[in-house]
Amino acid sequence: MRQQVVLHSYVQYSPSCHLISVAGVHQLAAVAAALQPACSAAVAAASPTAAAGFPPHAHLPLCPPPAAASRHQVLWLLNLVLRSCCLFACAPVLHQTQAAAGTLEAALAELDMDHYDDSDEEAAAAELADDPDAPCPAVIARALGGRSSGIIADDPYMAAAAGDSDDEDGGVTGLEGMDSEEVDDYTLRDSDLLVLAARNEDDVSTLEVWVYEEASSSTGGEANIYVHHDVLLPAFPLALAWMDCNPGSSSTKGNMVAIGSMDPGIEIWDLDVADAVEPAAVLGGRQPPAAAEAAQAAAGGSAKKKAKQKAKKKAAKAEQQLRPGSHSDAVLGLSWNREYRNVLASASADGTVKVWDVAAQVCEHTLSHHNGKVQAAAWNPAESPVLLTGSFDRTAALVDVRSPTAAAMVWGVSADVEALAWSPGSPTCFLVSSEDGIVAAFDARAGAGSKPLFRLAAHDKPTCSLSFCAAAPGLLATASTDKVVKLWDVAENKPKLLASKEPKLGAIFSAGFCADVPYLLAMAGSKGAVGVWDVRSSSEVAAKFPQLLQDVAL
């Protein structure tokens, strides 16, 4: 039975709950394309980022909601208006004061700078009552990036969650002050399908949650897709993996996403919180300067030599110090283990694969069986401790983490590995796509170095993504930077092209079938947008896999 959590699990094709993600260029850094119905519950509306005066990064959706502007657009416009009014309002007041005083001494005496810090909110309120045209200090503080309880109380869009509302769609918290149409746009329902995407545009990285609505009478007979909310990220994202393991609580399930980036740390974000300003946990990564200096002091060494170093040089060294067990380079691939929910595998440009205990936030194993950057990792859906990895050394390797020091089984491929996928119908078989566009299939039972079951020239450029359809064994989707997505029948190891599509998304970095609605394939590319393909529109696919024509009850 499907899990019922807020901002539901983003499930791919197999029992392994996994998000596809790849390295990108231009606008889109990494995209996880997978769909899942969402629970009818609200997302926390309080936005510390906006409260500090920094509007969230906004993006234009493919098909914006038919009603009013989204809450993100409202907040952005609201903050810009407050900033403009307040900054312009302060200048005339100061100018009139100086003109009336006539002298510098009189002006300073009237400003009373000696008691500048003594004013409180009651005095400000009294001053405002005496002069209604005077700018509200709370608003000024907010516009200049400060905090004030007055503006939060007066601003319904920034109201903190104070309990459940009586909205007919379910408990909606933190949306006080919005009209019914705005609340309707922001509320997630059981029938909503979610796509998780990470992108980079103009050196700004964000994690986006897209909502896809299938065509129905309520949508005017057309499908609709738009960004529900996004989260600002501190580094260029490269890989995503959804998980229900909450690093803050080992007993309760969460709704989390692990993000690998150009930084060596792996950030874990809580998807139940809109506009979060910091991750729930970080696996590895660089230590803060203060912590790094403390670690250096605890390690001992020559105190005299350390004392002679310049403070700037110490700070530079401190910034480079890594947490214990951390990767030392970018994290290119992630895979969450659904059977052992606290286990996460990460592949890195430092040439290693690490196995993490998410609950304890520690690295349990470091595997160094590759001779180059490791691009991808995938847990076996049937034998959970078995991990498949792919590298720029042109090999795919199989390891059992129960014996991390044992030699890995290795298969050679024609070029740098781009993506990996286990066959859902045959859990001993796996596919490897490479930079030259070739997709090769292997059977682990044949042993290391065995010949491929087949080699498929799927694309003219790198095949960045592989995804199997859970409801149609043998239906494989491939996506490439040649801007094309293709559907293949690979049953009986005899691949046959069924359909191809150029979705006008630019170079395609990621594609994934929906587990609950298996005829939907989500795609994303370099143009910074997400698309969804109903594969039933292909007559060849419908004829080969008639089970996809059956109605899906969400």
Structural commentary:
With 554 residues, the chain is of the alpha+beta class. The protein has 11 helices and 27 strands. It has a 4-stranded antiparallel sheet, with no helix packed on it. A 4-stranded antiparallel sheet has the order 5-6-7-8, with no helix packed on it. A 4-stranded antiparallel sheet has the order 9-10-11-12, with no helix packed on it. Strand 15 (395-400) and strand 16 form a beta hairpin. Helix 8 crosses helix 10. It is globular, with a radius of gyration of 27 Å. The termini are close together.
Summarize the structure.
The protein is an alpha+beta fold and 554 residues long.
Write the layout of secondary structure elements.
Blueprint: E1 30-31, H1 48-51, H2 71-101, H3 104-111, H4 121-130, H5 137-143, H6 149-154, H7 180-186, E2 193-201, E3 204-213, E4 224-233, E5 237-245, E6 253-261, E7 266-270, E8 281-283, H8 289-298, H9 303-308, H10 311-320, E9 331-336, E10 343-348, E11 353-357, E12 362-367, E13 374-379, E14 386-391, E15 395-400, E16 409-412, E17 417-422, E18 429-434, E19 438-443, E20 454-457, E21 463-468, E22 475-480, E23 485-489, E24 496-501, E25 508-513, E26 520-525, E27 530-534, H11 539-544
Antiparallel strand pairs: 1-2, 2-3, 3-4, 5-6, 6-7, 7-8, 9-10, 10-11, 11-12, 13-14, 14-15, 15-16, 17-18, 18-19, 19-20, 21-22, 22-23, 23-24, 25-26, 26-27
Helix pairs in contact: 2-3, 2-5, 8-10
